[in-house]
Fold each of these.
Amino acid sequence: MNMFKCKEETLFSKRMTKTEKFWRRLPFTTFFDSKFIDNSLDKKLIENVKKNDLEGVEKSLLNGAKIDARDENKKNALMIALENENYKMAELFIREGINLFVRDKQKKMALHYAAKVGKDLKFVSLILNEIPYKKQIKIINLQDRSGNTPLHYAVMNSNYYVVSNLLQKKANYRIVNNKGESSYTLAEKIGNQNILNELNRYK
């Protein structure tokens, strides 16, 4: 009986496809572990964001990926979309209720990323419009691991309209980063006269 059984098993394994063999080898507990499934979906979501694949992102979310999934640097999907200057994708994540207050490994928030890429106001406005005014002042002046505020990044990238908007919303240009640079001293260093003129209005 044992020999017959072994022969049957051998014949059966030969008939299996490579895919079937893979799933048969995969531990039962891993295959049905919700953490394993969720993690796979979350990774796929982040991959799609990095590829600027809006359709893929929508499918990932429909399949159950968590909106607040993060990559190895703790960047969430919104931060990556902002880095890629993908407005439609950033808009989607905000509409779906992504957390605007999380920080990545460098202690940056979504607003830091928006201030970096915003040649106009659309990215910064997208975020600030979702935040009550009283909270805006605190968030606008938050420093990352390098000591930079969103205003620092707006100045560094010569984003005049973002600088002007952040100053109107009480951004503090006197805050210094880890190198001892304020937004004002950075503007002097870069030599952007328009930004210097705007900063001088708030002196």
Note: The chain is about 60% helix and 0% strand.
Amino acid sequence: MGKNTFDIIILNGRPASGKSEVIDYIKKASPQERAERFHIAEFDDIDDFPMLWKWFEEDAILEKILNKPRMHTDKEGYFFHEYQWHLLIEEISLEYEKRLRDIDNYHDKYTTLIEFSRGSEHGGYQEAYQHLSDQILERAAIFYIDVSFQESLRKNRKRFNPNKPDSILEHGLPDEKLKKMYGEVDWKEFSGDDPEYINIKGQKVPYIVLDNEDDITTERGEELGEALDSLLPKLWKLRQ
């Protein structure tokens, strides 16, 4: 019997679109159910948010404690350079390379979940995907969660916990920053006319889209389960 689980799923979508909620739902399934229903093995997450947040923390320490210049962001929390967004993607590629190096037969046990959001303002998905390694792209399938900016804004406001700004499930952005960075996204231009595959650096990468405008992810209930039961087996067939 051949391998029945994805090597890599790349999860994209606007902030608060439901990415972390989908991961949370799938993680709660037993290993056997997760493999049979979703073609996902043991999870190994690579998310650029903790990397980004570390830069914020370092700048706060430099400015407030060491009385030194900020290294990564200005006082409003914007990166000094657009290429820093691409650096985060290069960091994801490096982290994946380390997995392959350090864990024998890595994908016999793990499905890697790579998670990030990109707006047109900082290069969009078209630029971000140029910085993913060929090792990732040749094994990847893309799961995009589609919501409007207004829905992203609503859920971003709702989920934000000021006492846990570093939390994967409870972090948020100020309204004006969310609009500047994610008001426009280039997913439709990036995905193009083919409803099943995106050509990225010579690799034909399969994708699916979850329409989450009606927010089926927050409750993590039956409706989300049904959507995943439909979409992930379809993505698995495309990956084959």
Note: The chain has one domain: 8-239.
Amino acid sequence: MGASEAESSLRRNVAIHNRIARRYEALHGEIFNDLEQERLRALLERATAEIRNDRKPIEALDLGCGSGNLTGHLLALGAAVTAADVATGFLALVRDRYPGTRLKIHQLNGRDLGEIDDESFDLVTTYSVLHHIPDYLAACAEMARVCRKGGVVVIDHEASPNVWQSDGELERFRQEAPRFDWRKFARPSNYVHRIRRIFDPKHSNEGDIHVWPDDHIEWDRITEVMRARGCEPVFQEDYLLFRRLYRHEVYERFKDRCVDTRGMIFRRRSTSRES
């Protein structure tokens, strides 16, 4: 993607998320449901336990904070949190949502974390964000850079590799699980997006999203980038994401048989010799 195209994609992404900030949680039932929130809370607890330094409180960066999903969990775990996003609509929402807490707001430039010093945070988290970033590997390198030695980086809620491979169990699950959603027929925007996809098969509703077989998150390359910058994987979780429109009984039947989403925790080495 050229510089002008990347800038155009960034502006579109910011405009979309500013517009939907107050409706974001209602639109994303795959995130804001009890099962996913319970899993996420457990992952963040695991991440804080993996930190190998004595700083208190933990200083955390919520990169691409959105409506403050991770920010809320991290504040509840006692962390001092910097909530960062490109969209001012989200930042205003998060500021209003968590007054009187250890919270700082930071507007991202959409290119890098250049305004953040090296080794500024004990915990760097990002959730359902990388697939919105054209150069997501550069974003991973930046997360490693701003993480302190002994600190951890959490990358969560991105498609697992089997999504791009032939997985019969996952296909069967996706056929059986969804309940009929009549509301989608009442949203005029759905018809607009459907028409746009006729002319651009990779058109997405929310900015630049890597969700295609030839354009998706490559976990092996993420691990290579993180290792090259001193961060070793310490935990990996592949799971079947629950969506509000899924039949719960079908999800329970398939959740141990197939997966479609991955989260990983990396810890930055305390010394150059640490493995």
Note: The mean pLDDT is 90.
Amino acid sequence: MTQVKICGINDGAAFDAVVETGAEFLGFNFFPPSPRFVTPERAAALSARAEGGPRLVGLFVDPTDEDIRATLAAVRLDILQIYADAERAASIKAMFRMPVWRAVGISVPSDLPVDAEGLDGFVIESKPPPGATRPGGNATAIDFAVLKGWRAPGFWLLAGGLTPDNVAGALALTGAPAMDVSSGVETAPGQKSPQLIKRFIEAARKPTARSAVPPAG
């Protein structure tokens, strides 16, 4: 079954929808320029709404060790999603002894990771468009042809431009083991829709979603 991550959760209704619909991962965005930004304290308050449920993922952009340490002092996280180079991501994993996913923006096949880099997974998305203020979450879809023939070195999530209407097609074309969505389940930047969250998860898990082509990896 396709795994799903709903990222950028910042209010109670969206948090509850992710828990109730059974997504595997729930993401908190700790990058201040993002409209989905939450403070560690806000993330902790939201996390207290449920016991168990999705694994909690913290998104960080070029963080210092102190940034991560202060966040973890306030809120329990299960996975760190890092926007940084491979060496820095590996050093964060060694420092905090936690699973780390590295976000990788791609535009050509040579951008794709070819080994696991000592990490636990990758978030594969398109490179940010010119003038973007954020490295991800720009609702820009990957050219799926770039993934053709790629042998993924480990667990990965497909992100960028996904919506309830196109996620099944994206899955069929890429064979991704997991799908990551943020803006595609919003009614406005940073405003999640519980209804769109439910539709996205249902569409990603349709039995026919994987039937078109074999996995890219």
Note: Residues 211-217 have pLDDT under 50 and may be disordered.
